[in-house]
Amino acid sequence: MNVEVCLTPALLPLYDIENSIVVVIDIFRATSSICYGIENGADAIIPVSHVEECAAYQVSGCLLAAERDGKVVEGFDFGNSPFSYVAEKVQGKTIVLTTTNGTHAIQLSRSAKQILIGSFFNLTALADYLASTSQNVLLVCAGWKNKFNLEDTIFAGAMVNKLRPAAYTPDDSSIAAEDLYLLAKDDLRGYLKKTSHSERLMKLGIEADISFCLNTDITTAIPVLDGDKLIKLK
Amino acid sequence: MNVEVCLTPALLPLYDIENSIVVVIDIFRATSSICYGIENGADAIIPVSHVEECAAYQVSGCLLAAERDGKVVEGFDFGNSPFSYVAEKVQGKTIVLTTTNGTHAIQLSRSAKQILIGSFFNLTALADYLASTSQNVLLVCAGWKNKFNLEDTIFAGAMVNKLRPAAYTPDDSSIAAEDLYLLAKDDLRGYLKKTSHSERLMKLGIEADISFCLNTDITTAIPVLDGDKLIKLK
User: Fold this and answer.
1) Which of A152, A170, B45, B133 gives the lowest tally of CB atoms within 10 Å of its CB?
2) Which residues in chain A have Cβ-Cβ distances shorter than 8 Å to B188?
3) Which residues in chain A have Cβ-Cβ distances shorter than 8 Å to B7?
4) pLDDT digits (tens, 9 = 90+) for B154-174
5) pLDDT digits (tens, 9 = 90+) for A28-39
6) For chain B, how many structural domains are there in total?
7) Where does the pLDDT of residue A207 fall: very low under 50, low under 70, confident under 90, or very high at 90 and above?
8) Where are the alpha helices (DSSP H) in chain A?
9) What residues make up the domain containing B190?
């Protein structure tokens, strides 16, 4: 079995998506929020790219999540903070989540055997599931506007590190991601402070979100794509 | 000033090439051989993608360099080993060099302010020149068939590390590349042994080339693209 890291969605055409299970990674904050919401009993989360698409669900009884410049868009139920995805708010609900980079990565991965959602929240549960399938794994970093980012890469590295004992063969980007993770793991928050995206998010006043998204193994649910919805893997 | 690392040529459309000096990096072995050849007195080196293109220069008095499966193609003067680019062979000559990944990276960078060739051989000389220009720097890893590779990334990281004192602002991929370089620098050969490309090259029986390409600061010439030719920067 191979484990490969696709460092940005722009590189997806180079990979054998059809013969892999894809894990989509968008740590700050889409895939963290999705893992948290599914763990906390949301029936489904529908990822969309634009606020306008999200608004189209307004009549259907879904909760709508959309932000612009770090603030909840007027008329919407909440933004992209994982703190919004608590049981009291999401249990039994379908949520439409606006996330440009995450949705882009999911759309480009559609031919995969299975599309799963990963974050530090469900790291071990997801690693255990992946190892149990004996399938090739492609870890897809959503990145930032198709560019490389450190937080997604470092999570990919954490997953590579977890999969090593199951005898996966890593590619060069998996080796790099794992080494960056090993370098950062004792102080993830400190390490990621030097990244451009963290800086951008800090300016939006969401330091608490960033810090929360770096908690490891606080959930066990694995979100899986089923049609256009992310639901809990049974 | 910014320093950015483009991890593979496939990501080049995302960068502001026009406002940058581009450094093309293909450590095993094209850009190492080019630096060595220009240092050793070659008049010019013309990079081409395919053996057929290279053969087209056969009538023009150029030296032709092309390999297939690690062996010099019949009828050609030499292959891609840097050991071929010694003064006795290349002084005063124009060499046509077949290099798929390197040529690809150069072609896609053509709109840059200037295109330079980097390798461990000319690391410090090139860093000093770059810092003297006060221009944005885009380090372009040639990679392997548009995929990420470790050796080019680690050299990019070495360059980022050299440019730091000149107050360049790094992007996330520059931070990652620099950290990987710092991790690897005390034993570059050992570190790169675990990469897929090294393994592939080992099978070709060119371990000596690989080891030689990791020598730092043995040359000072900076190859620059002038039309279709790489010549020595005056």
Assistant:
1) B133
2) none
3) 7, 148
4) 999 999 999 999 989 999 999
5) 999 999 999 999
6) 1
7) confident
8) 30-39, 51-55, 87-90, 100-108, 123-133, 150-163, 172-184, 188-192, 196-203, 207-213
9) 2-34+100-226
* CB pair distance less than 8 Å for B194 and A171: no
Q: Is residue B157 domain-resident?
A: yes
Interchain CB distance below 8 Å, A147 and B183:
no
Domain-located, residue B214 = yes
Is A83 a domain residue? yes
A42-to-A34, A59, A227, B4, B214 alpha-carbon distances in Å: 9, 18, 16, 40, 53
Is this prediction's ipTM beyond 0.90? yes
B-chain residues near A176 (CB < 8 A): 148, 150, 153, 176, 180
Which CATH number do you get for residue B214? 3.90.1560.10
Report residue B196's pLDDT band, with 50, 70 and 90 as the boundaries. Answer: low
Q: In B, what residues contact A, Cβ < 8 A? A: 7-8, 10-11, 14, 144-150, 153, 171-173, 175-176, 179-180, 183, 194-197
Structure tokens at B130: 């770059």
User: Is position A234 within any domain?
Assistant: no
Judge contact between B148 and A7, C-beta under 8 A: yes
Q: Would you say how long chain A is, in residues?
A: 234
Higher pLDDT, B58 or B212: B212
